[in-house]
Amino acid sequence: MRPTKSTAAEPKRAQGNNDESDNVIEVGKWPSETSVKFQLLPSTFEENGAASSRQHLTCFVVDDCVAFDAGSLAMATNKHQKEKIRDIVLTHAHLDHIAGLPLFIDDLFATLARPVKVYASQTVIDVLERDVFNWSVYPRFSELTNENGPVLRYIPFVNCTPFEVRHLTVKPIEVNHKVPSSGFIISDNATSIALSGDTASMDPFWTIVNQTPNISAVLLECAFPDELADLADLSHHLTPRRVVAELEKCRADCSVYIVNLKPMYREQIIRQLAHLRLDNLEILQVRRVYDW
Question: Nearest-CA neighbor of 259 among 221, 202, 209?
Fold first, then answer.
């Protein structure tokens, strides 16, 4: 994917409210067939109490029944999603990606008919048990039961080995973050979505993306503006200029959506990405339901 000026017509937008401040990046044509519903949950609020486009926490919901990361899972899911989500896949154990997990299980504890399944690398599971569900910070739900049985079940995965989650096939891929982290190829019978998670420059992720047919969208992080490149290097994140370098490795013919913008630098990052005039690129909108 080369950095070029987009000449495509304005695409059909996904469901949800439009935030004009984020629509400064030209985008390409959306897929004509849809099969996966994908939503970034809100986590931050404006002074009037309305959900903000700024993101302190990360949680994606697929088809209202599977969560990828759990930053705002307890706080931002609607009633239908709370009833349906019993499968949670984690990229890594940083707080902004797991903050809502203890509260989500706590809220549902008495009513769970089956355990909440948490899919993660064994390293991440060990961190959760040692540092979060340790009785000092929060109850160790893996040791607790309600009248129906266990309330939490861990399912470890190994990078590059696909596993099933509900109707989805998920392939985890090691990415380049400060702590052990995974990106994912998320597939159903018709389409696939690539999610980088938090990362700096990476190669294995793009190799697998380029080998995967029917990629409908790539979700790529960009946490810091170019002026904070040293901090991005130290914490293993991307900047707009480094997004360009990453997209040079991508051969998938699809739209790319930027995620994980640090809230204090959001407008600055968006301006810098817009200045690059990258084809088929936009900011993933909070609360909007995307059909891919």
Answer: 221
The structure's pTM equals: 0.88
Q: Let me know: does 22 contact 13? Beta carbons within 8 Å.
A: no
pLDDT above 90 (res 20): no
Element (H, E) at 145: strand 145-146
Token pair, residue 115, equals: 């355990």
Predicted confidence band at 45 (pLDDT cuts at 50, 70, 90)?
Answer: confident
What is the count of structural domains for the chain? 1
Q: Which residue(s) pair with 89 in the sheet?
A: 68, 119
Q: Indicate which CATH number applies to the domain containing 171.
A: 3.60.15.10
Residue-range definition of the domain harbouring residue 111? 20-291
Is 72 part of a structural domain of the chain? yes
Closest listed residue to residue 237, CA positions, set 100, 53, 94:
94
